[in-house]
């Protein structure tokens, strides 16, 4: 658009820098004032919240999710990291993850599983085998296994086989509840491993093991603990030793692999 400026008597209305009555043609275009946009500096907080296992994994592995059918409690953040993304090309800094400690404790059936469980991280993993241990023995031992400095450790317990030999269901469940009260003194994620079946000990013994495992599964869900169900697969040939109680080399390999995979999935 072409405009021809007027000569005004009132010089205050003329644009600054123009001369009065100047006969100059000007080409005027519409202009837009650019807005300056400043990207704010971002602080991104990333936290890895641990869940026992997803629903699909639970179904495949036999691990019951304690959050099912009850209000899920918020899991404390693990390995929290802060990343700063500076606007002016600064460097990005991260806080290294803190590794969780793993404690696996139980009776003599854990003998031979130590290598599979602890090999990936021997500094932060411990497998404690207590030959002949009953539930109350694990309850007494726990304070020496869980350190005050441990940050939300993962605790896996396999105990109860020896209790089914001499105690009735009422006594066994009472001992488990006492163990649960002791566990809650520590801020830990807890999974109970089901009692394995035995052979040659009479139908009554295996019937009681089934009853204890069924009670243990319901109790773990109610108390917010995980429950890993081995089922009856260990009754297959070549898994239990001659005494019908301890595991053969093949049985130990299967048992150790299951526990090690459970730990791996739990930490991931």
UniProtKB/TrEMBL annotation:
SUPFAM superfamilies: SGNH hydrolase (SSF52266). This is SGNH hydrolase-type esterase domain-containing protein. It comes from Chrysemys picta bellii (Western painted turtle). It holds the Pfam family Lipase_GDSL_2. GO terms for molecular function: phosphatidylcholine lysophospholipase activity. Residues 130-251 form the SGNH hydrolase-type esterase domain. PANTHER family: SGNH HYDROLASE-TYPE ESTERASE DOMAIN-CONTAINING PROTEIN (PTHR30383:SF5), THIOESTERASE 1/PROTEASE 1/LYSOPHOSPHOLIPASE L1 (PTHR30383). Residues 1-22, 52-98 are annotated as: Disordered. Coiled coil: none annotated. InterPro entries: Ester_Hydrolysis_Enzymes, SGNH_hydro.
């Amino acid at each position: 658009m072409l405009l021809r400026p007027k000569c005004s008597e009132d010089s205050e209305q003329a644009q600054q820098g123009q001369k009065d009555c100047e006969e100059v043609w000007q080409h005027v275009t519409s202009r837009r004032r650019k807005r300056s946009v400043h990207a704010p500096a971002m602080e991104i907080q990333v936290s890895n919240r641990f869940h026992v296992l997803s629903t699909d994994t639970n179904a495949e592995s036999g691990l019951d999710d304690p959050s099912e059918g009850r209000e899920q409690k918020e899991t404390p953040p693990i390995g929290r990291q802060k990343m700063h993304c500076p606007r002016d090309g600064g460097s990005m800094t991260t806080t290294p993850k803190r590794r969780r400690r793993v404690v696996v404790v139980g009776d003599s059936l854990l003998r031979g599983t130590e290598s599979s469980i602890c090999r990936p991280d021997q500094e932060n993993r411990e497998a404690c085998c207590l030959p002949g241990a009953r539930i109350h023995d694990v309850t007494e031992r726990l304070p020496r296994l869980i350190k005050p400095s441990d940050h939300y450790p993962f605790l896996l317990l396999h105990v109860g086989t020896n209790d089914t030999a001499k105690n009735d269901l009422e006594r066994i469940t009472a001992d488990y509840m006492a163990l649960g009260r002791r566990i809650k003194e520590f801020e830990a994620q807890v999974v109970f491993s089901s009692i394995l079946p035995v052979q040659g000990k009479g139908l009554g013994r295996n019937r009681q093991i089934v009853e204890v495992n069924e009670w243990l599964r319901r109790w773990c869900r109610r108390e917010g603990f995980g429950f890993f169900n081995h089922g009856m697969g260990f009754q297959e040939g070549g898994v239990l030793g001659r005494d019908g109680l301890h595991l053969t080399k093949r049985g130990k390999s299967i048992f150790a692999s299951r526990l090690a995979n459970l730990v791996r999935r739990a930490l991931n």
